[in-house]
Amino acid sequence: MSTNPHIAIIGAGLGGLTLAKVLQLHRVSCTIYELEASPNVRTQGGSLDLKLESGQRALELAGLTKEFVAIARPEGDNMRMAGKDGKVLFAMQGFDFQDGFEAVQKVERERAEREKSAESKPVGVWDDAIRPEVDRGMLRQLFLDSLAPETIKWGHKLVSILTSNSSSTSHKHQLTFANGITVAADVVVGADGAWSYVRSAITSAKPEYTGVTMVEVQLSDVDTRFPEIGKMIGRGSFITSQDNKALMAQRNANSHVRTYVALRIAEDWVKTCNIPFETDPRETRLKILEYYQGWAPELRKLVELCDDAFTPRRIYQMPIGLKWEHKAGITVLGDAAHLLSPFGGEGANLAMLDGAELALAIASVASPNSDSTETMDSAIIRYEQVMFARGNETAAESDTTMTEFISEEGAARGAAYMRNQFTMHQGLPE
Ligand SMILES: Cc1cc2nc3c(=O)[nH]c(=O)nc-3n(C[C@H](O)[C@H](O)[C@H](O)COP(=O)(O)OP(=O)(O)OC[C@H]3O[C@@H](n4cnc5c(N)ncnc54)[C@H](O)[C@@H]3O)c2cc1C
């Protein structure tokens, strides 16, 4: 290992960006290689709620809490759950919840009180919101703006890793990118998402279909164009599910609502369903709505009135309980390591925490201040042990949440599950 190791991070998602930022804070240099040609090639998807013990902890380790507070929406933490008749069965604000209508009233009353006293609150201090929401694109931009210039090499798709077994070569791995460029690296970190190339150099395990496919639809400028829908969704998210289907609406910044239409359905449905997602929005709406016959009219409006863009996504997860032998100088983080079903809302949070903790492990042996005698591989193994345990536990929870929500009983079962979870974790509310 060279004294100033070349650390190659593959992928500029939230996990790779957090890793790079924390490494740079500890004066360890690194380069991110990202397949996309530039930061703005695609929009970044919906909002994320960042959890205290994972996403927010990672931001703290990255020194970006203040910047995060400026773009976060604490009230986004509100969540309501209903069956296909639209009647609320469960509502939650932070970890404070009760069932039914009372809960909704309580959430609304507290919000009104908060707003009344907002002027007397210091800027950047949240009330009781434990998991403030943030738009994914804004969060990513925050990291991009904070990294040293030239940290990211855009348009670099990794297509090959050659590992040398000889101890005489100064760099262990030779990386080749689709653009023909080759670089040498001491440590390669796969932050390259669900279908990670780097992971394939460590294990043959692959993501498996969960049985659920989602179609993402949008309602722009909802409070002006469709105020009744804006009111129904409220400040956070409104999740409705029954009959092995769901309509899950979440409020993003700028009065934008993103809805995930979720169906428990065959893996090849997107190809075989004859829905013209890309060519005929009107027909696509009608065909999707056929799956939601008998659902409350106000819920069907989430699809009836949606904008013209439809994004189908099949939901995959890595086999739960997976571990592998450490491979010298190579590791993975985030979705590359433990792709989860998105129903727990944990994937980005864990990717960021993995990134921050891996950075601390690497910095403990590679930062200019380090007097550690530990090897780089031993430091990475320390990270991997914690990451495996946490990833597998969270994957199992996210899988259970999905099974409960996308079921015949849907929200009724999901609400009972949520009540149990919260009761277990912190006791019943007064
Ligand atoms: C519908 C949906 C909703 C979700 N909602 C939430 C939520 O509310 N909360 C939450 O915490 N999580 C959520 N998630 C999960 C979250 O999106 C992921 O867990 C998170 O983005 C993983 O981050 P990552 O950095 O590991 O990977 P990614 O964000 O996937 O980033 C990987 C990067 O690697 C690049 N890349 C891939 N291959 C290569 C290659 N060969 N060479 C170079 N670069 C490469 C990609 O272009 C990409 O930029 C959701 C996921 C889905 C699908």
From TrEMBL:
Single Gene Ontology MF annotation: monooxygenase activity
Residue span, FAD-binding domain: 7-367
SUPFAM superfamilies tied to this protein: FAD/NAD(P)-binding domain (SSF51905)
Pfam families on file: FAD_binding_3
Keywords: FAD, Flavoprotein, Monooxygenase, Oxidoreductase, Signal
GO terms of biological process kind: response to antibiotic
TM ranges: none
Annotated signal peptide: 1-20
InterPro entries tied to this protein: FAD-bd, FAD/NAD-bd_sf, TetX_monooxygenase
Protein name: FAD-binding domain-containing protein
Lineage: Eukaryota, Fungi, Dikarya, Basidiomycota, Agaricomycotina
